[in-house]
Amino acid sequence: MAIKGVFPAALDDPYANEATQPFWDAALRGVLTVSRCRTCGNCLLPPAPVCFQCQGEAFEWVELPGTGTIYSFTVVRHPLRPDLADVVPYVSGVIELDGTQGAGCRMIANIIECDPDSVRIGDKVRVVFDRVSDTYAVPRFTPL
Length: 144
Ligand SMILES: [Zn+2]
Prior knowledge:
CATH architecture: Beta Barrel
Structural class: mainly beta
Helix content: under 10%
Bound molecules: zinc ion
Low-confidence stretches: none
């Protein structure tokens, strides 16, 4: 069923690998996590085998508060597929995640439960997880 402003999940499973499965396991628990370099503390999202900042290869998963700031966004008003006609307008944003440091972590996500015309760069948001199956919870963000 189409919900105005909510981009429908295209998948029903994240098809994760061993490097990304912890993120999706946490998402099912309603927790936003990130892979953090044990050497320099840089956070990598998505996780990578080598830190781009210090070339370290040891990482740990840390829980984030789930809040963030809109770094950039766009309002999609034209349905790119016929089945999106009832979904537009929707907001797709780049969210800078609280609890990360340095270059930080930015996540592209659907911003829901908002008036698309009132969304602004710098607005505070928090993550919400849209559970679409037993294995997949889609992270979206909503205004604080
Ligand atoms: Zn590092």
